[in-house]
Amino acid sequence: MLRLKKIFFTISMLSLLLPVFGCDKAPSEAPEARDEAVITVDSRTITVKEYNDALDRLLPPESEEAGPAEIAELKKSILSQLIEEALILDSAIKLGLTVTEAELEVEVEYIKGAVGDEEFNSIVTKRYGSIEGWKDELRRKLLIGKVIEQVITSRVEITEETARIYYDEHISEYRVPEQVHARMILVETETEARKVRKTLTPENFADTAKEVSISPEGERGGDLGFFGKGDMPVEFETISFTTRQGRISRILKTDYGYHIFFIEERRKPVMLEFETVKEDIIEQMAREVAERKFSEWVTTLKRNAEIRIKETLL
Fold first, then answer.
1. Is residue 143 part of a domain?
2. For the segment 233-284, what is each residue's pLDDT rounded down to a tens digit?
3. What is the pLDDT of residues 58-73, one digit of tens each?
4. Which of 42, 165, 238, 286 has its CA 20 to 30 A from that of 196?
5. Residue 181 is part of a domain; what is its CATH number?
6. Average pLDDT for 85-94
């Protein structure tokens, strides 16, 4: 029996980096209202300042162009997220879960290493006012991750037998169609194409593409990689799948110019064996089950909680 891999790190990174790299969209607040509770979830409160700080961090950059209705939907989503986080943090208390200083420092050092010290300090100070303020936020996210791990993901198990049933029921998804590995040269005129075509050999095709091709792939020797039917424009597909391996195609005219293809390799259709895709299936199924169970769990928490929102302060 195989168990779902822990998503502790994923949760902490995604939850953290979204607020760090958000945009400035928070509404202004009157000084006297900053500490007033805008949301109360059982005994836990979220102040006007905390709500506005969340908007500041979580509204995506593209919301700058959004209309009032879209902004309202985004705010509604963030409001729901804050309520869910409050409920999960209450669950942490009931479960006796905490985040140690050692655990916190491991995550701090990893994120600093991923972002870079100089950029990291600049971003964190701008968004949180201080490194300590950011650490407090990170500690919260890590604690939420611990709760989700204990309540949800650690209890999700997908057996090989279950994965095999999924594989058999979705067998068509694991058929890899015929593919070709092609290189392409694109020039502007038929005269140029004919001139280039006369000098081409399988050995010099890549170097010639770098010299004369006007397509972006020219820099890579015209390499288009492997592709199957339906992955490329019909004209490309037709000439690529009718040209034999190791051969250079005839000249093809399109709206873009004049193309010449070289077929490096052909792959026959294959069926991916269960053992090859087993781990991917188990991970996919486990993720889907965990997401469903998390949604059901949070819905139950909300149903059993006393939630009050002061709409006038939003």
1. yes
2. 999 999 999 999 999 999 999 999 999 999 999 999 999 999 999 999 999 9
3. 776 666 677 888 888 8
4. 238
5. 3.10.50.40
6. 94
Cα separation values, 54 from 77, 83, 107, 129, 296, Å = 11, 12, 21, 14, 24
The answer to whether 239 and 258 are in contact (CB under 8 A) is no
Query: For the chain, what is the domain count?
Result: 2
Least confident of 111-115, 270-274, 286-290: 111-115
Which is nearest to 87 in space by CA: 95, 56, 72?
A: 95
Rounded to 5°, angle at Cα 294 from 60 and 287: 85
Distance CA 150, CA 129 (A): 32
| Residue whose token pair is 């991917």 | 280
Q: Are residues 25 and 120 in the same domain?
A: yes
* 300 vs 31: which has the higher pLDDT: 300
CATH number at residue 73: 1.10.4030.10
